[in-house]
């Protein structure tokens, strides 16, 4: 709740005149969850058109329904079910969004998972999950959208990181490593 409050405050205080987001197509991952849902609703208010992606179909569709309700039209958002641990889902997602909208103005890689524990306490599956969703999926998404953005000479990529990328936290070593990797992957 505290993180959402901070995010909400940051979005609320974002200078409105600085970027015109009207009609921008945003591919937003993790849209079914806390921060993702908040971002979807905020960006829709700023005039963005949202391609909302999540592995959890029902909460993601709920987010889209909330955007429709808020904006009072059904073109404001569309739901896509994709498991970001699956390479085929990631490339399929980008392809489908491009087919549906023609282009992607902003990739907002927000989906993230946290698995607590020291390295020796995590199973290989837990380690894979954190690194795959938080780091690998973001890099593959960027790899998939970048050629289209470069062809249009337009586009933005935003990946949600964490303070743990900078300040190591005890017991969240995999999560911290994934977020630190994201920072290093930024170009
Ligand atoms: N909440 C915090 O305190 C906090 C602090 C710093 C950074 N963050 C970062 O903010 C982002 C959002 O966090 P949140 O608190 O809203 O998380 P959340 O758990 O509420 O939501 C994450 C969303 O990602 C989706 N997701 C998980 N695995 C997926 C997969 N394999 N494929 C597709 N979607 C998947 C979930 O279904 C969920 O809807 C994350 O990247 C997180 O690391 C959160």
From TrEMBL:
<dbReference type="GO" id="GO:0016616">
    <property type="term" value="F:oxidoreductase activity, acting on the CH-OH group of donors, NAD or NADP as acceptor"/>
</dbReference>
<dbReference type="Pfam" id="PF00106">
    <property type="entry name" value="adh_short"/>
</dbReference>
<keyword id="KW-0560">Oxidoreductase</keyword>
<dbReference type="InterPro" id="IPR002347">
    <property type="entry name" value="SDR_fam"/>
</dbReference>
<comment type="similarity">
    <text>Belongs to the short-chain dehydrogenases/reductases (SDR) family.</text>
</comment>
<protein>
    <submittedName>
        <fullName>Epidermal retinol dehydrogenase 2-like</fullName>
    </submittedName>
</protein>
<dbReference type="InterPro" id="IPR036291">
    <property type="entry name" value="NAD(P)-bd_dom_sf"/>
</dbReference>
């Amino acid at each position: 709740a505290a993180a959402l409050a901070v995010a909400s405050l940051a979005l609320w205080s974002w200078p409105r005149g600085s970027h015109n987001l009207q009609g921008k197509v945003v591919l937003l991952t993790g849209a079914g969850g806390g921060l993702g849902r908040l971002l979807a609703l905020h960006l829709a208010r700023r005039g963005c058109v949202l391609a909302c992606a999540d592995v959890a179909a029902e909460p993601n569709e709920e987010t889209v329904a909330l955007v429709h309700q808020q904006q009072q039209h059904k073109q404001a958002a569309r739901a896509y079910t994709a498991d970001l641990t699956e390479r085929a889902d990631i490339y399929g997602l980008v392809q489908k969004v491009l087919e549906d909208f023609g282009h992607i103005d902003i990739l907002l890689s927000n989906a993230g998972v946290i698995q607590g524990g020291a390295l020796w306490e995590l199973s290989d599956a837990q380690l894979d999950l954190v690194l795959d969703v938080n780091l690998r999926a973001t890099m593959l998404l960027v790899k998939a959208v970048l050629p289209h953005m470069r062809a249009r000479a337009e586009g933005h990529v935003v990946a949600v990181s964490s303070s743990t990328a900078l300040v190591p936290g005890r017991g969240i070593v995999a999560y911290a490593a994934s977020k630190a990797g994201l920072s290093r992957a930024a170009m």
